[in-house]
Amino acid sequence: MKRYLAVFILMITILPFSGNIFAQPGELYELSSIDFIGNNEFSDSDLRNVIQSEESPLWLWKFLDSFTPFGSPPVYFDSLTITVDIISLKSFYAVNGFFETSFSYSYDVDTSSKSVVLTYTISEGKDFTYGKINVHGLNKLKHLHSQILPYTDLSNTERFNQEKLQRHMNIVLTILKNNGYMLATFDSTLIIMDTLMNKTDLEIYFAPGEKYLFDEVRVEKTGEGKDLVSDELIKYVASIEVGQMYNQEEIAKSRLRLARTGLFNSINLKGVVEDTVSNKVPLKINGNIGSMNDLSPEVFIDNEFNTSNIGIGLSYSRKNFFGDARKLTLSTKFKVNDIQNFNFFSTNESDSIVQTQVDIRLLLEQPFFFSRGISASLEAYYKTYNIFETRFENEGGRLELAIDMPAHTFINLLNPYLNLDILGYDIFSEVKGVPLVTTPKSTAAILGSAVGSTTANDFFFPYEGYNLNQILELALTRTVVTSSGQSIQDSLGLKEVTTDDIGFYYKLQTIFTNYTSVSRDNNTVVGMKFKIGYIQTFVGGDELIPPNQTFFAGGANSVRGWRARELVPEDRVSFIGVTNPAEDNIRGGTFILEGSFEYRRKFNPDFGYALFLDYGNTWNGYSEIEFIQIAVAVGFGVRYYSPFAPFRIDFGWKLWDPQNQISLFERAFWQAFEFHFGIGEAF
């Protein structure tokens, strides 16, 4: 049989369809459904995302659109879009390796309901796989072949995919630009179709150009602070030397280091192509430097303690503090915690207690510490807050380093830290009706590190990749417990009794999240979270672990069928026989198991919804875990994706309540309900 070869050039050709506009003037028919027949390789939803025609939304969205900005208007049938749809479908199939696909269409009209069902019939044909691949222009770059080959050597059993091919060519370009080839370009790809063998032979052309070195670093400054920051400091932080090979990735890192100083309103680094001489190129750093003093009032919302909190604050920053790009920040905040659960009209006293917090911090940031690849921050803090009726005072200091990790390593987050944390609070109780006040005060010296790996592609709405974060800590604690009150006076004849104990423990915590897009437009995502943590004492008992270092479950970012800190161990830790009040949940557990599954969908760029299932609980030790003690919640939420952060409202129900050993179906529906307001996605 004779072998036929054809050179394939992707073109958009306007097809001479003779369809008529169905709807007459003043007569509109909704496009109720778009169906596909014969599409074996791609789902209906994939194909709907390709074409211009859209199905009319459900009645609920049309109803909301009639009086709010949150719905969607009806969509009407227009036969003129069929031509565009078929062109789009042809292009979609071609770039995915189906070059011989044919299409036809029909539509059914229901005059009684004034609706139309549009159907596309598809004959996909055979798919084309990769054949011979020849790469031109890189023959002289033998030292880079090992890096480039994985992206140009495609399996001959794999179906042709133009998007993947383009992605691989972009990676090759990045490799070239990271190895001195500043002007490297991807010229073109010639696709030769073998219609007999269903193969696509590729001729790929690159133009790498010359290999460049930096021969000069220029600094151009503008802005009101331009005379207060030296060129030498900017060059030092950028960390690009004369004679260094051009490297696009290093330029991006330098820009990040400079931006991290906070000195610049805007910063840009680039090679000055027009001033190249031979294979030498100058690097220009162009920055707009703002004021060295900032005074910033703020109104904020956060999710500390897994609750929704609102407050006001004021911060003062001094940039380039004593030179070397240091930044000194003094901030103070006042906020009300767990605002959505405060009930002005409740007869339950615990529901009408305002949970407030005052927070004062002094922060010194150094963009380079020991070396330019390590930044540091030194913080002193004091905060006082109450959880229900218990008032806490927390103070301390923290030194944290951020180490720049090499490119293409699995671990891309490494932040060791040293933390001195002091926590004090009062426990009010009675012994045989006589008042007793117990005041524990814990001082913890904590040496730890946050280690992580992340490939998630978006901070606000990730649809691909994962986050893996681990916390490793060793802590030495001193706990002083002072007991006073009439009970001590009567039994011992003393005003107060003090005990002093030393504890030593380690803490491990792992959080893994994963995101997978389940639609071609990446607006539908399935997310998964798994969290596990454990605290084990070497010296002393669990009562010597400060309460703010233990694990809590429940709340806006946890198991959403429960309020924050509601899921704590039933066996409570005591001090010299005095147990924390059950209603305040002062102390959490030493073991946590928690997770979530979430289905997220954006139905337009600004709004979306989510369906979720959460599970988890805390225990005092892993030996206490029982399967029936794992709390399970289900629910749904709505999302508003603002330009600076997502806002969410979640409605959760207790599917299985381990505290009462009952399911959702064994109690009143609204008794199992919790409402949460949050900033950002739950994970």
Automatic annotation (TrEMBL):
Superkingdom per UniProt: Bacteria
Name the UniProt key words of this record, in alphabetical order: Cell outer membrane, Membrane, Signal, Transmembrane
Task: Name a single GO cellular component.
Answer: outer membrane
Domain POTRA positions? 29-125
Where would you say this protein principally sits, based on its record? Answer: membrane
Domain spans labelled Bacterial surface antigen (D15): 307-683
Is Signal included in the keywords of this UniProt record? yes
Keyword Disulfide bond belongs to the record: no
> Where does it live in the cell?
Membrane
What name does UniProt use for this protein?
Outer membrane protein assembly complex YaeT protein
